[in-house]
Every structure is written in structure tokens, then in C-alpha cells.
Amino acid sequence: MASHQPYTGDILHLNVGGKRFSTSKQTLTLIPDTFFTALLSGRISSLRDEKGAIFIDRDPEIFSIILNYLRTREIDLHGTNIRTLRHEAEYYNIAPLVKRLILCEELTQSTCGDVLFYGYLPPPYVPVQDAPNSHYVETTAVHSVRPGSSIRLPDGENNENGGPHWPQHPPQIPPNPPYSRTQGHSRNSSLELRVSATYSRSSQDLRGLASRGHSRAASLDLRHVRNSSADLNKLFRNDIGLVFGNSGSTWADPLRVQIIKAHHNWIVVGYAHFIVSYRLKDSSGWQQVFTSPHIEQCIERIAINAKMGSGENSKMVAISYGSQVRLWGISDNGEKTNIGIFNLHVPVEYLFFIGSQLVALSSSGKLGVWHAMTQHWQTQDVMRIASFDTAGSILLLGCNNGCIYYIDMQKFPLRMKDNDLLVTELYRDPNNDPVTAISVYLTPKTNLCGNWIEIAYGTTSGAVRVIVQHPETVGHGPQLFQTFTVHQSPVTKVTLSEKYLVSVCCEYNHVRSWRVTRFRGMLSTQPGSTPEASFKIVSLEAVEPSISHATSNDCGPFGEQDDEQVFIQKVVPDADQLFVRLASNGKRVCVIKAVDGSTVSAFCVHECEGSSRMGSRPRRFIFTGHSNGSIQMWDLTTALDLAYKTTDLVGGPSPEELLQMLDQCDLSNSLCSTPCMSPLPSIAAAARLKSSNVAFLNQQDDRASSSS
Question: pTM for the full model?
């Protein structure tokens, strides 16, 4: 080890990563307060090699660029990774060069977004919790509750008219919030937002927490502000654990967007303990219409129906947590009506509307239905459910016994007196394999009798089968049309559309697609299905203990069955970008990057109706929810139009893009996510993922796509 004596020679010899450089002391010390001035003044101890040259254990190629900058004050960025160069410039603490590189990076990133950026909804205020003994009666719909119904009245009491009492909720925007929300696209305001959100939980303790959080955040290196959201979140989560006496692992960030659901021109954004509804109007754009009261439990599911006619409850919004389902009606002017709280008695794993009926499902084999006309809630036991799909008024259930059942929801009100949902067996798998994915396609000639239907389904063995029921087979049930056995792992998703059959298995979301031929709208046996592509949608998703895996983001495919469908690929949990890819061949449509650098925590693909103006057409959007509570909107219709004009065959992230994202991801705390009711990946699969080569992780098999 060399002594801490200043170097007096005018010519200095350096050994950087094994490569020798010679320069003058004046060159290295012309910029003050750098690594080199500290080194040559003796403030930093150094090593010397066998020839007496000062040894610096850094990348010699990048150092040569930095040394040339010190000599000439010019920088050649041709063929240079700006991010890597900036990292080394920060290590050497060369402030003028760091500022220039930051500006170069900012040229490609804007808070106004690129051409696909469509809109921004700022984070909402978090509704405060109920006062301990403050209650009042809200407007409620008249319930026709038959004996045995599972409706629960809050507080266990009824009012004089037989309706339930509901707890009073203070105004959702506090007049004097304890911490003011930073306006605009502040890159460093996520900590303040989170402190404000949880203020009502323990104001005295959190005042101290906020001061600690602010002081600690100030000590962070905020030069990497685009990547600091996750670090601030972890910091705050740990401090919350100290306040409430736990590790913070079960604490849910109150402003992190958990779920986004959409229907027609309405979206519902789900946070940990409340939901917010927005609607799109022709000229005024997106408007916040409804904010729920604070929900003590963590919200796990959301369902919305924005087409219930006109009147007091023209829109319906439902949430679930545990086995509980809570339902509101919303009028056109935003006034809410509490419909009720229902109990499925088992965890609700899926919540959705079929027409005016709210359906809650559990894989254990329990099904609950609420009908808007009769105001009844009914539960019924069925087989253990592994997958489901809807078509019109029909609900299809793929079950663990290898059978596909269907329920005609139009007949549901007529069967109330018999307590029978009329569950009918439609088809049984030849090998009795559990049906883990299912997709139904109604051809344009499908009539109300439902005798013209096509169904694709996947099984635990990896088989993908297509069954059809055309007019000539009426009375015999669906007939097996075709079987594919290309997957070696359980199938998690399958989609049958007008032009393609797409399936996904749980091995790193491996996708296979086929082009289907049709004759007069029906699937044709000649020439039959043709292999189209094989690729992977690699996605590493962190598993939150406090949030069910079913609320995590599904990779797709998304889109109407008579139009082009897409996959949404979120590679790492803390990513601020999404890769949009065609479901048919895996080709990259675009990359969506958050305009404020915040983590994308949820997303939704939805087609909004066109305006009433002549010539207006529906447009598809991608709604992204972020860790700071904001909603950002992206024009998928324009992205697809631009993608069709290019011949670029790029698919998912390149090796360079993947490595850059993996640098920010802790693989030890990540798992491969799987969508819907699909089987979760095995522990062995997760271990293979962590130990495998990065090139294997990124293997997309796009060459198979292009060759076909």
C-alpha cells in the first residue's frame, strides 16, 4: 500500500484495469474536486503495479474516453453507451461531464412523453378512515332478500324502512391535509405522497417517521432520480414496519396502483384501500367521478359495468377482499348508492359482470351471482374451477375433473325459486385432464340458441384442443376438431380469434400461435391450422404477501377476437417500461416508458367508444398505473398503425435491454408470474430462472417466427 504522500511528478503513469496510460498531472487535476485530485493529494490511498504505475480497477475502454475529455473537453458518443459512460463519470466525480451526459439522456426522455403518450391523471387524495362513532344512513337500494341469502348489513342493524345503516365517511379530500401533495410531474414526490396517505393511521408516530424519511431521502444520491422510486418505496416500507412493530412485509403502499379495470368509457383504479372511477366525455376528457370510502381490508378484485341503462344506478362497481364482495351503484352525476356487502364464504378469486349480473368465483368450486333486477345474491357449489371464459350471456367453466360446464345467465332469474343455476356439462376432455385455460369464439353467424360456437382450451398436460359445434352437429354437443401437443408444461392462456389460435404455457410464458383458415365463417379442415410463431414473454414479477397473485398483471393476449391482439411484457417488477408485442408473431409494436420515471405497477388494455361526432371511431388504449399513484394513457391504435408500416422483426427486449433491467432487479425476490387461474410455476422453475444464463432468459425464438 502506498503512503498518503502527494505526487509531485509532472508525468503520471496509470494502470487502469490492466491497460497502461500516460498523462500529465495538469490534465488530471484541471477539473477540481474529482477522484483524481483526491488521489494525487493523498486523500485517497492507492495501489501501484510492478512498474510503479498507479493502479485503478475500472474499465479501461471507458477510461480512455474520459481521459480524452479531460485533454480536449470534447466527447465522442459514437458507439458509446451513454448510461455506462455516465456511471463511470459519476465514479470519477467529473461534474461537467456528468451534466452533459444527463442532458443527452434527457433528450430522449420527456415528461410530455412521445407520440404515443395520450394523457395523465395525477394521484388522487387518499380518503381518510371513518371516525370511531360517526354514522349516518346513505341512500340504499331496496333489497329483496330471501331466506338464506348471504347479504350482510354493516353494524348488524336495520333502519326503520328495513334498509341497512351505513357508516359515515368524512369528505374524501381533507380540507387541511397534513402533508400537501406536490403538484405536477414531480420526480421526487413519492415519499411525501405515501406519508400523506398513511397519516390517519398514526399521526403522532408518522410525524416523526416523515421527518426521518425526508432527512434520509435527502441523503440519497438523487442523481438517479428516474430509478429512485423503488428505493424510496423500500425505505418507507421499512420505516412503517418500525412504527407498527413489524417488518413491513405485509404493509400495502396506499398510493401504489394495484388494479385497473375498464368498461366502455369508464375506468376504475384500485389502490390498497380505496378505488377511484373516471369517465371519458367527448370534449372535456377524463373526469374523476367517484371515490370509494376507505376500506380497512386490502382490496383484491374489481369489477365494473358502465352499461346498465340510465337512472340512479346506471353504473355498477364492485370490489372484493377475502370472501367479501361490496357493490355500489353510481349515477351519471357521480352519486353513489351502497347496494350491499355479500359473502361467498370462500376467498373470491375472480369478480366480473355478465350483463347486469355480478359473478364471483372461487377455484374451490363456489360460485356467487347477484342480479340487478331481482336484487338477489345466490351462491352455489360447482366442480373445482381451473379456468373460465364468457361469451354473451354464457359462462363457461373449465374444471379440474376435465369437464367444461356452461351456465346460461339469461335463465338465472327464472331459476331463483329452485335455487338452481342450471349448470350443464358441455364437453369432457378425452384424457380427463384439468382444463386450465379456455377461450370461446362466437362466429358472426352465431344465433341466440348458441348452436354455432367454437371453443379452444388447454390442459395441465400441455395439450391444446379445439372443439366446435356448428349447425350440422346440433344435438350431439361440441365435436373435437383438432389437438396440438407442442407444450410440455401446463397451458395458462389460450385465445381463439378470427385469424389465429394463440396459447401460452407456464414455462416462462412460452407462446405458440397458429393461423386458422375459415370457410363461410366456420373453421375449415382444409388446409387446416398453420404454425405461425414460437416465442417467450419473459416476465419476472415480485410476489407481494399482502396481495393475491391473481391481481398481478396478466401478459395477455389483449384485444377483440376479430382484430389484432397484443401481449404486454413487463420484464422486471420495478420496471418503468412495458414492451408491447403482437400476439400472432411476437413482433414488437412499441415500448412504453413512464413519463415521470415511476414504476409501472398495473396496466390495462381497453378500447374506448368513439365520440358522437361523425367519422369518429373507437380507439384502443393502454392504461398504466404507477407506484406514485398516477395513471398514464397510451394510444395503442396509433402504435399498431405505425408498426404495420415497418419491416422490423424485433421482438422482446434485446440482451442489452434485458441486462439493463436486470441490473435494477433482485432476482432472489422475484418469481415468474402466471396469469389468471393458471397453475403457478414450480419452485424448480424459479430456481432454473435464477441460475440460467441471461441469454437463455432472453431467448425469444423469434427466428422461428420470421422463418415461418
Answer: 0.70
